[in-house]
């Protein structure tokens, strides 16, 4: 039974442990769970020259481009961009855009953005064009820290000349808009010192606003779930189990619907086990006819220096096969290779 099936059934054990065996809710030096590590022999000018050669090679040398971009950290890639501009007088992003194509191009260009720029780009993309990609909005705004949200908002304003909130108000409405705007504030309480009394009272408020009441007071669910940090939310979920025979996630699915349900359920899943949440998103992106390549690229790139190791582990645990196996089945060519390199060389 997968992690979230257990969560929906109300079988909630203690907070999942990290790979060190220590309780992941305890404060300690943070282990590194990314799959991309700094190149110890890094030389920005040398890499810039290698990229120039790969771009100018007849037919383009995608292998060389992959080996550089996917095996350098984001900080190192920013130095390569600067060196390329200085040494050639050209913009690396434009140079690559002129010779690459399709999903491989999307990955390469995503790797050249800073994390904040990439989040801003993906949020803009989710709201512009035909149809709104609500799940992408929920994924980004529902899983980033307060600091990350502040940085992506600055990047959004720098890139597009307007506030992120302005775009949300122009594209979203109702309670869903209220929830997203609350997350945009980037003011969730991230204090690791848990308040048992507050958890108990807010669990009661959620119970009375939903399960105990005919109809649902959406504003109560929005306020509590968008203002509390992950650790405090988990404490609330535990308290809720004392009031109800149903797990909180399952109650949320009964009480809410549509985009608001998905938004708040994102907060619940990410609070309890963020790597499992991303593993589920990746699985759904490759399930059925036609892969959701935007989601696949976004998660692999954005989590490659955060927690992709743990996502790979959760994926194997939840679905009985590795993420790499599904990538091999759903992608091909240079696009497939660059995703696999980003997933790391280790067997999972």
TrEMBL record:
Residue ranges of the region described as Disordered: 14-43
GO molecular function, one term: phosphatidylserine binding
One Pfam family from the record: Annexin
Biological process annotations from GO: cellular response to glucocorticoid stimulus; phagocytosis; signal transduction
InterPro entries per record: Annexin (IPR001464), Annexin_repeat (IPR018502), Annexin_repeat_CS (IPR018252), Annexin_sf (IPR037104)
Spans traversing the lipid bilayer: none
SUPFAM superfamilies: Annexin
Composition bias type Basic and acidic residues, residue spans: 14-25
Keywords assigned by UniProt, alphabetized: Annexin, Calcium, Calcium/phospholipid-binding, Repeat
GO annotations of cellular component type: cytoplasm; nucleus; plasma membrane; vesicle membrane
Family: Belongs to the annexin family.
Domain comment quoted from the record: A pair of annexin repeats may form one binding site for calcium and phospholipid.
Protein name listed in UniProt: Annexin
Biological source species: Silurus meridionalis (Southern catfish)
């Amino acid at each position: 039974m997968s992690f979230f099936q257990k969560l929906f059934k109300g079988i909630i054990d203690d907070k999942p442990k990290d790979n060190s065996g220590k309780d992941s809710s305890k404060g300690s030096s943070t282990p590194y769970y990314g799959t991309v590590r700094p190149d110890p022999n890094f030389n920005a000018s040398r890499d810039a020259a290698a990229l120039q050669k790969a771009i100018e090679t007849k037919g383009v040398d995608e292998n060389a481009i992959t080996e550089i971009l996917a095996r350098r950290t984001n900080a190192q890639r920013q130095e390569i961009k600067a060196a390329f501009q200085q040494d050639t007088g050209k913009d690396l992003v434009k140079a690559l855009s002129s010779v690459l194509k399709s999903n491989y191009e999307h990955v390469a260009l995503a790797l050249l953005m800073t994390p904040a720029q990439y989040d801003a780009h993906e949020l803009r993309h989710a709201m512009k064009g035909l149809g709104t990609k609500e799940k992408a909005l929920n994924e980004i705004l529902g899983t980033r820290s307060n600091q990350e949200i502040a940085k992506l908002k600055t990047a959004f304003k720098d890139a597009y000349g307007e506030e992120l909130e302005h775009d949300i108000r122009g594209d979203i409405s109702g309670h869903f808009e209220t929830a997203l705007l609350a997350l945009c504030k980037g003011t969730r309480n991230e204090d690791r010192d848990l308040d048992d009394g507050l958890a108990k009272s807010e669990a009661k408020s959620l119970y009375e606003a939903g399960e105990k009441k005919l109809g649902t007071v959406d504003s109560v669910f929005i306020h509590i779930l968008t203002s509390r940090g992950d650790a405090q939310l988990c404490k609330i979920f535990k308290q809720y189990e004392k009031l109800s025979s149903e797990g909180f996630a399952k109650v949320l699915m009964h009480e809410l619907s549509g985009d608001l349900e998905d938004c708040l359920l994102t907060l619940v899943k990410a609070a309890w086990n963020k790597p499992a949440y991303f593993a589920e998103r990746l699985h759904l992106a490759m399930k059925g006819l036609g892969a959701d390549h935007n989601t696949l690229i976004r998660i692999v790139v954005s989590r490659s220096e955060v927690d992709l190791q743990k996502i790979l582990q959760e994926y194997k645990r939840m679905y009985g096969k590795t993420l790499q196996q599904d990538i091999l089945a759903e992608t091909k060519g240079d696009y497939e290779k660059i995703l696999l390199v980003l997933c790391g060389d280790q067997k999972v």
